[in-house]
Please model this.
Amino acid sequence: MNSVVILCGGNSCGKTTTLKGFFKVKGNHSPESYIERKLDGRRICAVSFSSPQEQEPFCEVRLVNDNIKNRIIECEKNTNGEPYILIIPFTMSGSRKKRKKINEDCILKPIEKLREKFKVFVIYLRKTNARNLEDKDALMKRIALKMVETTKDDYDKSAELEKYLKGVVIESH
Model:
């Protein structure tokens, strides 16, 4: 069974930086297309470093699910039927105008749908000085399997991501 790792957090918590570090992407280049890396013989892939919630209108669950479905299709096309682990960043907040709102449905419902076909692992990048931290913590306590603290000076959690992938996700395959 293939797996999906959700890298979840609020605005500016390190999701993109962590993905760039893990996939060894240099500079400001943020792939909007397929990227892959082997880890312990397993294919780890991502399709865009932007979250589906950022790419769709605020809390449009159907559109977020369609966005995720397209990422899965792209990953399956590139892996040619081999087992894979797909990493998808999820943002918890809305756009700048809606930062105070947490798009709970656009996090919980897509994860629920993914669990119908995949092993799903949720990593919470908890920014210690984030807005609405209590609300974010309460939501993540319900679904996150792993919590990693980030600060404004320490965003790159790629080493922790790699360790978690090796120790938990790959071991579960």
The first strand starts at residue 3 and ends at 9.
